[in-house]
Amino acid sequence: MARELVKIKGGAGGFQLMVDSSAELADVQQELEKKLSEHPEFFPKGTEFQLVVADLSRSVRSGLKDFLTDKGLSVSSGGQPFLKRQEQQDSSAAGGGLYAQSAPAGQQAGGLTGEQQVMTVINRTVRNGEEITSQGSVMVCGNVNPGAKIVAAGSIDVRGSCRGIVHAGAMGDCQAFVVADRLMPMQIRIASLIARSPDNPEKSDYAEKAYIKDGQIIIEPIER
Fold first, then answer.
1. What is the pLDDT of residues 63-103, one digit of tens each?
2. What radius of gyration, in Å, describes the C-alpha atoms of the chain?
3. Among residues 107, 169, 217, 223, which is most buried (max CB within 10 A)?
4. Separation between Cα atoms, residue 46 and residue 220, nearest integer Å
5. 174: left (phi over 0), alpha (psi -120 to 50) or beta
6. Which of 39, 68, 25 minimizes the C-alpha distance to 133?
7. Mean pLDDT of the chain
8. Using one digit for the tens of pLDDT, what is the confidence trace for 189-217?
9. pTM of the predicted structure, to 2 decimals
10. Which of 146, 108, 123, 131 is closest to 11 using CA atoms?
């Protein structure tokens, strides 16, 4: 399997851009172009990236800067990640391996601990025809109905039944996962892998977690 030359991860302050330091600039630009075009809603003009590779050559750094500038984006080395957001607040662990603070539907919660994930908290059921996208992780305090869709750069936690389409790790994060009190989505994606629930899923008395192991999506029961 070809190595991944570019990784983009959402953090509490914005996006981190990680690049294979041995890669050629043209190959990096090609893979970055693909990632940006797959989910353009994540990257409006003005989005800034923090470059976290210390040993990247000057020519590649310069080439990346010019490439992103042409798209109305920018990159910085070191310091704090960007993407201007509301004033950060304290947060507390919300279970399931995610960290969140109660917030109105669609609001971003900042000042996070753990993996430094931005968390979008939806305090309602996500209904048929709705699509939620997040530059970090998503928590839904309600159900995800059939025909609803959630796309997150990070992980997804549903405090209810998940019957819609969910895509965690949308920017290629293979460590992302999906957790739900009842996990029976129409389709589940983690990074580039796709799976679906069986036609007649067995009822579980436990919440379930879907994640990548040995190159495939597996689902196992967990305790909240």
1. 999 999 999 988 876 543 332 322 223 332 333 333 333 33
2. 18
3. 169
4. 40
5. alpha
6. 39
7. 78
8. 999 899 877 666 667 778 999 999 999 99
9. 0.63
10. 108
